[in-house]
Write a sequence for this structure.
């Protein structure tokens, strides 16, 4: 007769909804975190706030009285919304028609007196995935570069920056900020760099890529010099834009989503190189976020091919474009894993061991936990540790110090004791 084996205690999860606790969403990621519990530090370079949930609160930080009154009138006392923004929520299918609740909304309960609700949400996601530090970006605001009212980007982005710095980071020091730069206003960008460069929690400066501003325009040279002088990186965060005339030809969200993210990185990085900016600002560290990796070898080959035939087109370059690209930094998300051999070749091409930074993109539908890196069979242990945290610690001058709880402790706190 078979001997009955005692089973460890388990807790049956309720249906996953928009009110599910983040730690329950990520219970499997927490179990995976056991495998990298000994890593020195793990840094997530790209996570997001669904700012519409806190929009009424963020709008209180708008310093322009007219725009602030407009936002308040549009909100009419609502706690959530997207007043003044140009995001088209009605044709965003990221939640797959509500089938991915954590993308649709986050209505989980938080603990009274334990800090801002968003800070608590992100603390839970860091603990659950085994992350020490997490960089927070907006979501819908990433389309502000296409806003027809340029002053909206200026004032709304400044409100968001203040909200993160004054309201969120004090409640959770493990959250970090790459200050949103209103790129339509280069002189103001310089002022923001000089004002916030030394503020705790501000580890660099970001530009939303969804825009038609040419990065080589002379008006931006003072900005690049100012960022270079801080020693902190300049980050380009891409996104999608279905209203772009090229992408209007695509009749499915997934098709547009697949192409749009890499599109804006391709344009801005090509302009960055052809106009000799790497040699004009040799100490400026540049990071490209959320475009995945597959587009990078393509661009290397295309630009090298073109420059070798037409070197006079880029007189400011002293080396091939691919050589400059290998010295730039990229984030891992979304990690294209459908062909492991191609992914391996891509990582070797871009010097991933020293230039790649882990990003989760939590809470978006296509997020990657740290196990997306640790389970890659071709990476050495050193490469995994570098990508998951040590590269970021060096680039952003972060302490190599574990502050995350043990995976077992997180599981035990939720009653998820299944091996």
């Amino acid at each position: 007769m078979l001997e009955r084996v005692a089973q460890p205690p388990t807790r049956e999860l309720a249906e996953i909804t928009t009110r599910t606790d983040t730690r329950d969403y990520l219970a499997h990621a927490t179990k995976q975190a056991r495998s990298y519990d000994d890593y020195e530090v793990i840094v997530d370079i790209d996570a997001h706030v669904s700012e519409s949930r806190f929009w009424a609160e963020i709008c209180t930080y708008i310093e322009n009285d007219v725009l602030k009154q407009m936002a308040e009138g549009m909100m009419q006392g609502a706690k959530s919304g997207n007043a003044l923004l140009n995001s088209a929520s009605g044709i965003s299918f990221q939640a797959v028609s509500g089938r991915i609740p954590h993308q649709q909304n986050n209505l989980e309960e938080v603990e009274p007196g334990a800090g801002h609700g968003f800070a608590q949400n992100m603390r839970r996601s860091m603990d659950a995935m085994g992350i020490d530090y997490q960089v927070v970006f907006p979501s819908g605001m990433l389309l502000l570069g296409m806003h027809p009212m340029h002053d909206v980007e200026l004032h709304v982005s400044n409100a968001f920056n203040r909200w993160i710095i004054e309201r969120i980071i004090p409640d959770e020091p493990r959250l970090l900020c790459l200050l949103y730069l209103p790129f339509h206003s280069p002189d103001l960008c310089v002022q923001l760099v000089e004002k916030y460069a030394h503020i705790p929690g501000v580890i660099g400066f970001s530009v939303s890529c969804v825009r038609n501003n040419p990065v080589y325009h002379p008006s931006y040279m003072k900005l690049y010099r100012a960022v270079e002088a801080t020693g902190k990186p300049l980050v380009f965060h891409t996104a999608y834009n279905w209203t772009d005339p090229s992408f209007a030809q695509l009749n499915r969200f997934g098709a547009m989503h697949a192409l749009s993210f890499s599109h804006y990185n391709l344009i801005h990085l090509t302009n960055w190189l052809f106009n000799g900016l790497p040699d004009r600002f040799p100490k400026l560290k540049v990071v490209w976020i959320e475009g995945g990796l597959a587009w990078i070898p393509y661009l290397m080959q295309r630009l090298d091919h073109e420059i070798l035939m037409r070197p006079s087109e880029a007189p400011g370059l002293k080396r091939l474009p691919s050589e400059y690209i290998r010295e730039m930094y990229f984030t891992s998300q979304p990690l294209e894993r459908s062909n492991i051999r191609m992914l391996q070749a891509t990582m070797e091409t871009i010097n991933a061991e020293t230039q790649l930074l882990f990003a989760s993109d939590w809470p978006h539908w296509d997020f990657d936990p740290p196990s997306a890196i640790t389970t890659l069979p071709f990476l050495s242990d050193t490469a995994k540790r570098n990508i998951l945290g040590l590269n970021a610690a060096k680039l952003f001058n972060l302490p190599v110090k574990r502050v995350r709880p043990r995976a077992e402790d997180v599981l035990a706190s939720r009653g998820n004791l299944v091996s």
